[in-house]
């Protein structure tokens, strides 16, 4: 997010809002920022730091602790699928 912020500022689009480090929403967490396009529309960027794997038993993965660009194991992706809400 810091590299994105620097690139946006260099092109004349500074962040209008930046959570700076991290926000925590209980089940998820991360960093969010907004830039404004030339027409005044706000564009939101979100960097996820904490993702629920199995909410029922309190399993979360903290992405800040992982190597950037490293894929999640398939088993974690399958477990995350169990969190889906069905009508």
Q: Please count the beta strands (DSSP E, at least 2 residues each).
A: 5
| Termini Cα gap | 35 Å
- Count of folded domains: 1
Secondary-structure-derived class: alpha+beta
Describe this structure as you would to a colleague:
By secondary structure, the protein is of the alpha+beta class. It has one domain. It contains two helices and five strands; from the N terminus they run αβββββα. It has helices at 2-10, 74-81; strands at residues 15-18, 23-24, 29-36, 42-54, 59-62. Strands 1, 2, 3, 4 and 5 form a five-stranded antiparallel β-sheet that branches. A hairpin with a 4-residue loop joins strand 4 and strand 5 (59-62). 1% of the residues are buried. The mean pLDDT is 80.
Per-chain topology:
Blueprint: H1 2-10, E1 15-18, E2 23-24, E3 29-36, E4 42-54, E5 59-62, H2 74-81
Features:
87 residues, alpha+beta, five-stranded antiparallel sheet, 2 helices, 20% helix
Concise overview:
20% of the residues lie in helices and 36% in strands.
């Amino acid at each position: 997010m810091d590299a994105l912020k620097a690139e946006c500022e260099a092109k004349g689009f500074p962040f209008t809002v930046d959570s700076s480090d991290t926000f925590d929403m209980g089940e998820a967490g991360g960093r969010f920022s907004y830039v404004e396009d030339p027409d005044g529309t706000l564009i939101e960027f979100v960097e996820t730091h904490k993702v629920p794997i199995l909410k029922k038993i309190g399993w979360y993965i903290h992405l800040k602790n992982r190597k950037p660009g490293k894929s999640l194991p398939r088993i974690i992706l399958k477990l995350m699928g169990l969190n889906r809400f069905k009508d």
